[in-house]
Write a structure and sequence with these properties.
The protein is α/β, with parallel strands linked by helices. It has a domain of 215 residues: Rossmann fold (3-Layer(aba) Sandwich). The chain contains 19 helices and 16 strands. The protein binds pyridoxal-5'-phosphate (PLP). The site of pyridoxal-5'-phosphate (PLP) has 16 residues, from helix 11.
């Protein structure tokens, strides 16, 4: 498949190139030149497949011919064999909510579903090269642990994970910092997730540095992650065939919900995608008012959504602006020089055909966890709770599919506070508390991180 950049359509790339680079030159994001649209009978055929077989069909559309189908088949089977559920995800009906549990992988968050595949793709796509790859990743808590679980102990790969110091949950931190392999470096940055993401973007934009360390990235700006996430929209939709289906998605960097938008572009008849945010509500504001204006990050009970610069929104913008790369570039330049950009009413209306958005604050989040536990005897994590809250924007009697993005155990303090209940330790992390942590604390300065990495590589 051929890919181009949201900021320059003249540049063309193949899957291997976009996979290894992550970010396009000039700071743009990669996007497929054409997205395949399935017809009704093709969709009908897909609806009969198991999760892994469906993943093979969908992911193949995007990595053909750089990964051949047999290799992809083995790669995907290997990626999902250690999940706690045979069908990778689980769907539960709780009142009028259909909860899509996406958190049965090794680090208990939905990010494992894509990251496990990416880990195996690195081995596959980099196989002929003797050149060590250095993956640098910013995390608001869950990407880092999923990346470490997927890339730990792989040969020819080092992983540098930047997380905001003291701004992630204790269990999130422990999952990342207790792995202790020689190829993994955890760095706590004295700043926010947006600062971590900015440092990574600056390092990608520095060609000399990027080439020197053979840098690659697995943040949700990496298109391959979005591709893997498209699969569960199809899979869960098929359980509600011929009904009107809405997905409600706890959202931060706009990667997960954008995967739903791509699924819709591929012909899956989703009605609406509902963006749930916490008090970091830039997406709620841009969808409802047209103004994209990052504020200061406010730490919340759903830290993996504490994002003000929601990078994948640029991909939606590309489509809303009729695939006009020059316009995307000019919006992004406004963002850089003036600190914001504004969409006009016509553009807002285009977004609203596919999306709605609602903000849920911390007090509401706690109430929702408590009520859900009282009503159904089922405990949800604070991220999932924002989506349960946001589902109230659906007023008709269509099916409500809420993406459950993390296991409640990962946010034990919050969940205990809301419900006063204990949760059984998931078997993936039984011995976590006894293990020794290893991480370094660094200033919020790109040059410091660059020097740290160079030092570790020398
Ligand atoms: C990463 C994450 C999100 C946000 O996903 P985006 O793709 O960044 O929008 C939501 N919930 C949890 C638990 C996460 O780890």
């Amino acid at each position: 498949m051929e890919y181009l950049s949201t900021r320059n359509k003249k540049l063309s790339f193949n899957f291997k190139e976009i996979f290894l680079r992550g970010l396009a030159p000039e700071g743009g994001l990669f996007i497929p030149k054409n997205i395949k649209r399935y017809n009704k009978s093709e969709i009908q055929k897909l609806s009969k497949l198991s999760y892994t077989d469906l993943a093979i069909e969908i992911i193949f559309e995007f990595c053909n011919p750089e990964i051949n189908k047999n290799i992809l088949r083995n790669l995907i089977k290997k990626s999902y064999k250690d999940f706690n559920k045979k069908e990778v995800i689980d769907i539960k009906k709780l009142g009028n909510i259909n909860l899509i549990e996406l958190y049965h992988g090794p680090t208990l968050a939905f990010k494992d579903i894509a990251m496990q595949v990416l880990g195996n793709m690195y081995d596959e796509l980099n196989i002929s090269s003797n050149n060590k790859i250095n993956i640098v990743v910013a995390t608001s808590g869950d990407t880092g642990s999923a990346a470490i679980a997927a890339l730990n102990d792989r040969k020819n790969i080092n992983v540098f994970v930047l997380h905001p110091h003291n701004k992630i949950s204790k269990i999130q931190r422990k999952i990342m910092t207790t792995i202790g392999s020689n190829n993994v470096y955890n760095i706590a940055i004295k700043g926010t997730f947006d600062d971590c993401q900015k440092i990574v973007k600056e390092m990608f934009a520095d060609n000399t540095f990027r080439e020197k360390i053979n840098m690659s990235g697995v943040n949700s700006i990496n298109w391959a992650r979005i591709v893997c996430q498209i699969v569960y929209y199809f899979y869960s939709y098929f359980k509600f065939n011929n009904k009107k289906v809405n997905f409600v998605v706890p959202t931060g960097n706009f990667g997960d919900v954008f995967a739903g938008y791509v699924a819709k572009k591929m012909g899956l008849p989703i009605d609406k995608l509902i963006v749930a945010t916490n008090e970091n509500d830039i997406l709620e504001r841009v969808i409802n008012t047209g103004e994209y204006k990052p504020g200061k990050v406010k730490p919340s009970l759903s830290p993996s959504m504490d994002v003000q610069i929601s990078s994948n929104f640029e991909r939606l913008l590309f489509y809303v602006l009729n695939e006009d790369d020059k316009k995307v570039l000019s919006f992004m330049n406004d963002l850089k020089s003036k600190g914001s950009f504004s969409l006009n009413q016509e553009q807002i209306d285009i977004i609203k055909e596919d999306f709605s958005a609602k903000k849920i604050n911390d007090d509401e989040t706690v109430e929702i966890i408590k009520k859900f536990s009282n009503d159904y005897g089922f405990i949800i994590d604070p991220h999932t709770a924002t989506a349960v809250g946001a589902s109230k924007v659906i007023k008709d009697n269509s099916e409500i599919l809420v993406l459950g993005t993390a296991h409640p155990y990962k946010f034990l303090e919050t969940v205990k506070m809301a419900t006063s209940q204990e949760i059984e330790t998931p078997k993936q992390i039984e011995h976590l508390m006894d293990k020794k942590e290893k991480y370094d604390i660094l200033e919020n300065k790109t040059t410091d991180i660059k020097n740290y990495i160079l030092e570790k590589l020398s």
